[in-house]
Specification:
Layout (H helix, E strand, L loop, with lengths): L1 E10 L3 H9 L10 E9 L5 E10 L2 H8 L2 H10 L8 E10 L8
Antiparallel strand pairs: 1-3, 1-4, 2-3
Length: 105
């Protein structure tokens, strides 16, 4: 399993806007090998909010198929040259290979 996280730091009060942007239907939802997308918000910070988008894939191959898909490439082309909203302070993307999943007994 492969997990991709995208942590988006935004100005206080804008977390729901980012959640809405990532919660709608997307071409990624039809990709083979996608397990799920989870969107989480941390509002506990005093000066900002964090939105984390976690996308779980069955395998590295499944994620690579998404990365080179026409839908993914077209989405980046459509956003090329657009400025990010002012309320977005920072975005960090990380990839994790899952080694162990411990289920309750």
């Amino acid at each position: 399993m492969l997990i991709q996280t995208r942590t988006i730091t935004v100005q206080k009060g804008f977390g729901d806007q980012v959640v809405q942007n990532f919660s709608g239907d997307s071409p990624i939802d039809t990709m083979e090998g996608l397990i799920d997308r989870t969107i989480m918000v941390n509002r506990k910070k005093q000066d900002y909010e964090e939105v984390m988008v976690m996308i779980r894939w069955e395998s590295l191959v499944a994620w690579k198929n998404w990365e080179k898909s026409d839908a993914h490439i077209q989405g980046h082309k459509n956003n090329r040259g657009k400025e990010k909203p002012e309320y977005i302070l920072e975005t960090n993307v990380s990839m994790y290979e899952v080694n162990t999943v411990k289920k309750p007994k």
